[in-house]
């Protein structure tokens, strides 16, 4: 079965700054209609719990791209759109390694992008169009407002459909299809007939968000046409695709609506998007050697960086370095170039060279998560656990769902051989990494083990007990 979903992760609170960005000049905000007072605080709290539960399930089932630099680039754009809304801190944004064109959102502010959506786009404005559409679904709380159509089944049943689709997308046979049968399939059928107007509303409000953030609303209509051409070539479309029904009428409406906005100045950051697009293609196995060779022959900076990443992924450090040298001759200051250089040196166990490759850039941009984590990785390889922990905690303290951060903290804590709480801390950090990766059962086991070892330390025991209770309560919440 063809994969059809894309799902989410990295909190808005871990936003970083970068010298490369896609922020055009902002334009005035539009008024977004009120959705009424029928949904209160309690329901919003439920949405957050459901969103986090789905996040863990998705992390466990889907091939999530864990690349801090790429995550950071999309979070920068994502936050620009969110600045046009009144949405609080969302659960996060996740990039899914999937060549199909798709994006999705779930209750509580969980958003996802497929790598195929990025590699199929012609500009960042097109990606923003899809992001804005999904954000509009959440700001208008379409899932919450669908409860009446679901006749009391509620948000958790709806979230179950999403997770069922995530499982189905990973299956090659009837096992995945079976997940969508029965009650969930019946609920989905109800949602399809109900969601047509919600899709139009998300298009309209999403365009307002785009324009307010300085992006071209016509790019949303452009990308709809790209999607239509892509899906028309498929002989079979899974039912879940139609949660975003794309009719000829809707495409025409989107085009007419977009043309009513004042013209947006041309985006001057196309090369930045090309770097993101081809880097995404290289690390998600969507770029061929022939495609990269063609870009390299054109002396494309984006192509050279992507080719370096492509060969680095294959463990060919010599070729990766050659392409990086050629890129450096064009622009030696790009943060992705520094990160790739550090990875080449780490692959060759040249730790001091790896440190020198990243430290100068990281000192200039200490708030940059990608550079911070790469420097922490170098510190861990150099057995400098304290330095690594100090770096990592800056980001994990802002984003409890940062799986990579917890994994790095676990490695760093293991180096602290003189700390009597060393094993306890390793188990605590491992537990968090397991938990937010969706392995709730083993996460609880790790924390129980830590609790037994920390029984003589009252402060640590209390801390572990409180966290354990939350994990156990949330594990009981079934989808």
From TrEMBL:
Keywords: Hydrolase, Metal-binding, Metalloprotease, Periplasm, Protease, Signal, Zinc. GO terms for molecular function: metallopeptidase activity. It comes from the Bacteria. Residues 1-18 form the signal peptide. The active site is at residues 134, 203. Pfam families: Peptidase_M48 (PF01435). Its EC number is 3.4.-.-. Zn(2+) binds at residues 133, 137, 199. Functions as both a chaperone and a metalloprotease. Maintains the integrity of the outer membrane by promoting either the assembly or the elimination of outer membrane proteins, depending on their folding state. This is Putative beta-barrel assembly-enhancing protease. It comes from Acinetobacter sichuanensis.
């Amino acid at each position: 079965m063809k994969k059809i979903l894309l799902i989410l992760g990295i909190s808005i609170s871990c936003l970083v700054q970068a010298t490369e960005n896609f922020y055009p000049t902002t334009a005035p905000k539009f008024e977004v209609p009120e959705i009424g007072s029928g949904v209160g605080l309690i329901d919003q709290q439920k949405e957050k719990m459901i969103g986090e539960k789905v996040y863990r399930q998705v992390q466990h089932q889907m091939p999530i791209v864990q690349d801090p630099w790429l995550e950071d680039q999309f979070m920068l754009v994502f936050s620009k759109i969110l600045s046009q809304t009144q949405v609080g801190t969302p659960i996060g944004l996740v990039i899914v390694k999937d060549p199909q064109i798709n994006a999705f959102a779930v209750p509580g502010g969980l958003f996802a992008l497929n790598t195929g959506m990025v590699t199929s786009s012609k500009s960042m404005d097109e990606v923003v169009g899809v992001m804005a559409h999904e954000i509009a679904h959440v700001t208008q709380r379409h899932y919450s407002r669908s409860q009446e159509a679901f006749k009391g089944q509620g948000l958790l049943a709806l979230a179950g459909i999403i997770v069922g689709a995530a499982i189905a997308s990973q299956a090659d046979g009837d096992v995945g299809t079976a997940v969508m049968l029965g009650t969930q399939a019946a609920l989905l059928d109800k949602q399809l007939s109900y969601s047509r107007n919600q899709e139009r509303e998300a298009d309209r409000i999403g365009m307002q968000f785009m324009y307010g953030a300085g992006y071209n609303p016509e790019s949303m209509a452009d990308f709809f046409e790209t999607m239509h051409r892509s899906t028309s070539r498929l002989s079979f479309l899974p039912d879940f695709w139609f949660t975003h029904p794309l009719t000829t009428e809707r495409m025409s409406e989107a085009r007419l609506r977009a043309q009513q906005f004042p013209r947006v100045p041309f985006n001057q950051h196309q090369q930045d998007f090309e770097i993101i697009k081809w880097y995404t293609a290289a690390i998600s196995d969507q770029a061929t050697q022939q495609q990269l060779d063609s870009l390299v022959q054109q002396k494309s900076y984006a192509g050279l960086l992507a080719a370096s990443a492509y060969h680095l992924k294959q463990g060919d450090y010599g070729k990766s370095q050659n392409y990086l040298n050629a890129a450096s001759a064009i622009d030696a200051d790009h943060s992705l170039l520094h990160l790739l250089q550090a990875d080449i040196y780490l692959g060759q166990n040249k730790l001091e060279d790896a440190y020198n490759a990243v430290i100068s850039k990281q000192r200039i941009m200490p708030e940059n998560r990608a550079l911070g984590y790469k420097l922490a990785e170098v510190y861990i390889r150099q057995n400098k656990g304290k330095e690594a922990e100090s770096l990592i905690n800056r980001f994990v303290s802002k984003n409890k769902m940062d799986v990579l951060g917890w994994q790095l903290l676990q490695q760093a804590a293991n180096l602290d051989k003189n700390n009597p709480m060393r094993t306890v801390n390793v188990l605590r950090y491992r537990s968090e990494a397991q938990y937010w990766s969706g392995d709730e059962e083993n996460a609880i086991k790790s924390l129980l083990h830590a609790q037994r070892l920390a029984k003589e330390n009252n402060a640590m025991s209390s801390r572990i007990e409180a966290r354990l209770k939350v994990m156990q309560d949330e594990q009981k919440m079934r989808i």
